[in-house]
Amino acid sequence: MPDRPEPVLDVRDLKTVFKTRTGEVHAVNSISFDLRPGELLGVVGESGSGKSVTMMSLIGLLPSPPAQIRGGTVTFEGRNLLTVPEADLRKIRGRRIGFVFQDPMTSLNPVFTVGDQIIEPIRKHMRLDRKAARARALELMQLVGIPDAARRLTDYPHQFSGGMRQRVMIAIALACDPDILIADEPTTALDVTIQAQILDLVHDLREKLGMAIVWITHDLGVIAGIADRVMVMYGGQVVEQAPVKELFARPRHPYTRALLKTIPSVRGARAPKLTVIEGQPPILGAAPEACSFRDRCPYRFAACDAANPPRFEVGPRHDAACFWNFDRDAPRDAAPAGEALNA
Amino acid sequence: MLDAQPRPDGRSLVEIRDLRMWFPIRTGLLKRHTGNVKAVDGVSFDIREGETLGLVGESGCGKSTCGRAILRLYEITGGSVKIDGQEIGDAGPNTLRRMRPTMQMVFQDPQASLNPRMTVARIIGEPLDEHTKMSRREKTAKVHDLMDQVGLNRAFADRYPHEFSGGQRQRIGIARALALNPKFIVCDEPIAALDVSIQAQVVNLLEELQAELGLTYLFISHDLSMVRHIATRVAVMYLGKVAELAPREELYGEPLHPYTRALLSAVPEPDPEAMGGSNRTILKGDVPSPSNPPEGCNFCTRCPDVMEVCHRVDPEFRQVRPGRWVACHLFEEGASSPSNRADTESMGDTA
Fold first, then answer.
1. CB B178 within 8 A of CB B125
2. What confidence score (pLDDT) does residue B237 get?
3. Structural domain count, chain B
4. A267 to chain B: nearest residue by CA?
5. Cβ-Cβ contacts under 8 Å, A267 against chain B
6. DSSP string, A148-200
7. What's the pLDDT tens digit per position in A133-170?
8. Domain assignment of residue B79, yes or no
């Protein structure tokens, strides 16, 4: 794809396994994706689909044991993050790649002031003196819209509301001007009116700072509003990937199609009965040898039991891991070699 | 049936008038009573037989406290709660115990509300032990019936809660609530802990059971789109008070209270076709503390349409159109005069 800029992050065939007393859990099964400069990639999936584990794997945030990365490459600035020494990785984390987690209550340290917690990464990574770091912290708090920032620097996390704590988390993540921001369900713990404030803030910050963002969520509504491109995950795999408008207009994986139908809307027409995805998500005891959605899929046919579908190209920058061809409403022809994306 | 409005002659099964639930704040060495958290502060509404009343609002608005207070899981501070004609607001333990089978609850977190040391059969059968004199055989049969009804395999009756998924655990909670043939069930965020694909399964089950058994629900949720799906009428709470109460389509089609409007516009839209990007209202600031609510209207600190009067006078919750109740000064003119609102007036009318 020569017309697109070089990716800032390129993940190929990432595999992560957890070893537990009762056996292995194959949480991430050969995931490949890339992230372009300045783009916002939405990652959607239900709990257990592997979306958080994927992101934590690629910057070495998973404790090992029990986690074990079984393979793949994560290319960031020409280096494979899976093999760089821990000391180098530590410099990349926080400085070049920032994080925001779901629960702002538990990710802030209750015994330090908010100011200390913003200043710490600035001093560590940017080697600024105390005064300059404090000035930078103040600037960040203003950037994320915390009113009366100078006074609030010396407040403790419990003195902040949930929405304000999440703004603090975003300020910490942005402290060193990262190239990539990974946000894991950053608005899930917040009320809708506060979520709307944070989404608005992210819009502004993207315009001002232009970093690439990975936004993990289970809420397709949030994705529709902010993402450029969406990756849908199921059973530790990417099942569909497309630009946001394309995904909502032409979903090409049965899981995405069902997911879009199960969510009622507050606007538009109201369905008399909700569409249900029958059954349960798969138990990831082994690497998949057949399609992991087949037990819940209305389109299931022989091919789905025989092999795990690769990601077929189904449109411009749009791929889906399904043997069914929705455009012709027929099974896909035996995969032509050139069509499979992650052979 | 799912779309059917309750029969027009549907009587009120639950009548709540001026319900108040204040929690005392005690400070200092002597634990002196220095203030109150007014979690529910003067709430009035009716729930008609066979309908689902959705109760929505953001965290801390008092919706869960309200649901629990209605079932008298708290000693309420004041007001009246009538269920099936029986006043239970000030009822003693014996009356309450007699009433318990009529009114049941489904909790948010199926993990926390099921005893991990009890088998599914014992969990579902426990209300039968408490309130009926069934023989062991009758009980087993009833438990199996209940499991069928909520779509659980009866072969799993001797398993423990941890062996089930979240959605199945919620089915266990629903089966337990159904055990005593209740008329009224308070569902407190029953789907909040579940994944989207499982939420629809549980909501459809609740709807099927309602159609089959003629149940009446109070459905407490922060998920406005799911409430639009399941509720007949919707009440919106803010800071301990009901801001607006209206039939579902009217509330979502034309929200009157500025808070309802802001709340609905804040919900992200999963359908790009229906996206109304231009007229979004983003509220400034946070919800004030219920221990120190603002003077006048409790929404005046964040209201985009705030007027001078809002800082002084708490607006009355009144019927501004048939079936539509709002507590807002914007709708003062043309509203029924406050004096003709007697306690006997039905708050369920859609006439």
1. no
2. 96
3. 1
4. B274
5. 252, 269, 271, 274, 276
6. THHHHTT--GGGS-HHHHHHHHHHHHHTT--SEEEEESTTTTS-HHHHHHHHH
7. 999 999 888 888 888 888 888 999 888 887 888 889 88
8. yes
B275 and A276 within 8 Å at the Cβ level: the answer is no
- Which residue in A187, A234, A244, A266 has the most chain B C-beta atoms within 10 A of its own C-beta, making it the best mutation to test that interface? A266
Q: Does residue B5 fall inside a structural domain?
A: no
The verdict on residue B219 lying in a domain is yes
Instruction: Look at residue B273 and tell me if it is in a domain.
Output: no
SS3 call for A32: strand
Question: Closest Cα partner for A274 from B197, B221, B233, B269?
Answer: B197
Determine whether the interchain pair B199/A220 forms a contact, defined as Cβ–Cβ distance below 8 Å: no
Q: Which of B88, B123, B122, B115 is nearest to B102 (CA)?
A: B88
For A271, nearest residue in chain B (alpha carbons): B229
Instruction: Express the helix, strand and coil content of chain A in percent, nearest 5 each.
Output: 35, 25, 40
Residue B344: CB atoms within 10 A of its CB come to 7
Check CB contact under 8 Å for B266 and A192.
yes
**Strand partners of residue B82:** B15, B87
Contact B282 A270 (CB under 8 A): no
Interface test with A, best of B171, B196, B265, B301 (most A CBs within 10 A): B196
CA distance B8 to chain A (A): 20
Yes or no, beta carbons of A264 and B228 under 8 Å apart: yes
Rounded Cα–Cα distance for residues B198 and A328 (Å) = 30
Burial of B215 (0-12, 13-18, 19+ CB in 10 A): buried
A42 has pLDDT over 80: yes
Which of A193, A258, A272 is opposite residue B58, by nearest beta carbon?
A: A193
Give pLDDT tens digits for B247-285. 999 999 999 999 999 999 888 877 666 555 546 778 887
Q: What length does chain A have?
A: 343
Question: ipTM strictly over 0.90?
Answer: no
Rounded CA-CA distance A291/A241 in Å is: 17
Measured from the Cβ of residue A316, the count of other Cβ atoms closer than 10 Å reads 8
Among candidates B2, B200, B273 on the partner chain, residue whose Cβ is nearest the Cβ of A275: B200
d(CA A44, CA A233): 6
Q: Which domain holds residue B69?
A: 12-268+278-340
d(CA B24, CA B37): 6
Task: Answer for the pair B226, B270: CB distance below 8 angstroms, yes or no.
Answer: no
Give tens-digit pLDDT for B196-247. 878 888 999 999 999 999 999 999 999 998 999 999 999 999 999 999 999 9
Q: How far is residue A81's CA from residue A57's CA, in Å, rounded to a whole number?
A: 10
CATH of the domain at B70: 3.40.50.300
Contacts of A259 in chain B (CB under 8 A): 196-197
- The half-sphere exposure of B7 on its side-chain side, counting CA atoms within 13 A, is 9
Q: Of all helices (H) and strands (E), which one includes residue B221? A: strand B216-221
With contact defined as beta carbons under 8 Å apart, do B233 and B51 qualify? yes
